[in-house]
């Protein structure tokens, strides 16, 4: 799906999340305790270093503008899923293949939701100039 340039950085970060999801599902299905432990550790690292900053950009810059534009349903779902993912990551501090799989499934669904709904609504309601201002893209 072609994404407007202003949202492409956030969209690219979704690729990182989806690549992680594939590895997590494989580890959860392996039945190998060492693989599960490594996957849980990796999830916590990637979440702290890449996914949480992604959430912060959305919550600080994008979601308030969408809320103001009347898109409260997509904003509410985004925030609920962010919090659910944060809770699951905290649970992964004690490695558990079931929690790992729940995290992977929710992350996958969340990325699909953001790509298919949240970003579409942002493009339609806010437009490229507002997105450029909100997300710090020069030249707009």
UniProtKB/TrEMBL annotation:
Domain Hemerythrin-like residue range list: 9-121
Q: What InterPro entries does UniProt report for this protein, alphabetically?
A: Hemerythrin-like
Q: One Pfam family, short name please? A: Hemerythrin
The organism's superkingdom is given as Bacteria
Protein name, per record: Hemerythrin domain-containing protein
* Species of provenance: Azospira restricta
């Amino acid at each position: 799906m072609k994404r407007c340039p202003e949202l492409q950085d956030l969209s690219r970060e979704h690729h990182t999340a989806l690549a992680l999801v594939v590895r997590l599902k494989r580890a959860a299905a392996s039945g190998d305790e060492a693989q599960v432990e490594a996957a849980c550790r990796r999830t916590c690292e990637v979440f702290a270093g890449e996914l949480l900053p992604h959430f912060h950009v959305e919550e600080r810059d994008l979601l308030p503008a969408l809320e103001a534009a009347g898109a409260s349903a997509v904003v509410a779902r985004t925030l609920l899923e962010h919090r659910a993912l944060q809770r699951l990551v905290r649970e992964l501090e004690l490695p558990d293949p079931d929690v790992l799989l729940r995290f992977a499934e929710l992350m996958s669904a969340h990325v699909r939701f953001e790509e298919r709904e949240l970003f579409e609504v942002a493009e339609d309601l806010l437009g490229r100039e507002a997105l450029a201002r909100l997300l710090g893209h020069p030249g707009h």
